[in-house]
Amino acid sequence: MHSLIKLIYGLITNDITVICLFIGIIIHTAYLFHKNNLKTSGAKNFALLVCFSGIFWLAIDMFPEYNTFLLLFFTLSGFGLAAYAGFKRNKLFLKEKEDVNFGSLVLLLAALYILLVLKTAWLGDDSFITFRTVDNFIHGYGLTWNVEERVQPYTNTLWMFAVSAVYFVTRNIFICVMALSAVFMCLAVYFLKKSTADKVSFLVVFFALIMSKAFIDYSTSGLETPLTFCLLAIFYWLYFEARLRKNRTFWLSLAASLIFLNKPDTVLLVIFPLAYRLMSEKQKTILPAMLGFVPAIAWEIFSVIYYGFPLPNTFYAKLFAGVPSFDVFVQGLKYTANSFVMDPLTLALALWGALAGFYPLDPEVKKKRLFALGIIVYILYVIKAGGDFMSGRFFTPAEFAGALLLAGVGFDKVRNSWMPALAALLFLGFLSPYYSASRAFTPEKYFYGKYSNVTDERQYYFLDDYGIKSVLSEVVKQGNTKLDFAGFALDGLRLKAYTGDKRTVTSAVAAGMRSFFAGPKAYVIDEAALADAFLARVPFDGTRWRPGHVSRLRVEGYKESLEQGMNVIKDPKYARLYDEINLITRGPLFTRQRWEAIWQVNTNNYE
Questions:
Q1: Which of 270, 284, 497, 582 has the most Cβ atoms closer than 10 angstroms to its Cβ?
Q2: Residue 419: inside a domain, yes or no?
Q3: Which of 100, 131, 149 delimits the end of a domain?
Q4: Following CA atoms 571, 576, 582, 584 in sequence, which dihedral angle do they give, to the nearest 10 degrees?
């Protein structure tokens, strides 16, 4: 049975299958354009140019030894395509309604998207930071990282609860996360479709997303991104759905509240339209809005009581890291540059969407400007925060918000506008040297930005010696859905075997997968401080850092204090901090001493 599944999976996700499907889509697109424009001068030539442009890129992947030569032809064909469309614009873009049945093309694109997700599905180490909390939670240890203390290492609270609910039933993290990702991505695409101005707009935007490496990469990964896409699409639909008049404020407030709980910084994408809605309705909106905000308010209250802090530990780990602000800003610019080079479409879609929000002929332009402003503010925030070490990840919410705005533009109002749009997207998407469709399991495709501190994280987990080896293909080959067959997972299992029933204190930089498989008996010090409330307040040692991973000053006696169960830290300042953190994260919830410690640490008065 496993051999049959392996064969079917291999046939579906083979590079040749992807290439053939791409060729089919390109030729079918050109055919539709030509069929609908038999009397339009230049239509045939334009369609042929599109075919040649796409085939040149496919040849690059099929004949890597001629990459430089073929890439030159691909680039020239792309510019030739643009020039031809510009010179022939009066004959190609006639102002008439479109008369094309795009159903078959949309089905082909859906098949391509499903195939690409199956081919590239993965789980990253950072996702296991949340999964360790999930595992502890469903086994009765509370919402903890190390079962001895209450620390919030995750920012994706809503995603964590969704995973917990399904994991409680399946007891298999791989099946659980892949199923949830599939459900939320389907819902995101469904509400994107409901928000589009017309069938042509959906076709263009859907194709744009498929051609984006980051969108494909983070359709899985184990991170909260699929749920982020889903919630953004729902918020957008709620905002503009004409038939939804009753209780709109409540539903928008609830959606914004859930967006905040899923990934707090993405609330910037919806805060301006939400504020406009609340201010325009004034007093009528106060009660519905407050009811909508209940989940976020309730979680903040719980967080302060249970963890002792209003925000996730990751916030404090980055805020108190002590990396110079200018260096962080420069890193943000490097992150942005990396995204443009690695995946031009991700930021292009976000910015095109922001421009679409200012489209003067759109009757909803006043409201859409607020969404466009949110995209710009969010991108600036990402740059100021230094971005992330995962290429493209932090820009994907802005990309999807841009796609929602772009989908509101009526492409079929100008005949044939969809064809140049698809051709441009094809060209920009294929400019990425590491596009997800291209030989997803080939190790030499892995990108590590030595000078930018940004990596192609998905590709990293397809290498044979680290982490999860080609997650889906390995599962099919071995029939093993426990993900315990390689790299960091094996490190965790070895630690679990060594630990046995005794308490063990260890440390790790990439702590997610190791800690998950090590089990609750292992006390793991996260050297990046994302899951360590004490180290989160120890500053940068001035040696090495990248976003979310900052080396800290060595506090003599910290590990020994954890091993011995008593404070043996020599530095008085850090000894006091250790006692305060210990009281907050380990002491009884409702004591005067604990709440005094909560006040001292949250107001930074422990020094």
A1: 270
A2: no
A3: 100
A4: -150
